[in-house]
Each structure stands twice: as C-alpha cells, then as structure tokens.
Amino acid sequence: MKNKSFDCVKMARDIRDKLYRENQSPSLKEFSDNLIKEAHKSLLWKKINVVK
Predict the structure, then answer these.
(1) pTM as predicted
(2) 2 pLDDT above the threshold of 70
C-alpha cells in the first residue's frame, strides 16, 4: 500500500471552502465570477497550454 504525502482531494476541498467563506454573501454569479478570477491567477492556470 502506498503512503501518500499529498492529498489532492483535501487540498481542493480546503481551497473551495476558503473561497466560499471569503465570498459567502455574493450571489451565485458573483461567486462564480470570483472563482474564475482566482483560477486565472493560479499557477496551474498559467502553466496550461491551450492548443487550437
């Protein structure tokens, strides 16, 4: 059995919960817009190469 030192699911949940706490009061549209902005600022988004 493998010992995991990094849990992607926990990390994703922690990020989601943090963003939700920070943006509880806005409407769903405002929340999703903020989520999109945060995603675009992340290192993961910057490393993605979109090929058309």
Answers:
(1) 0.42
(2) no
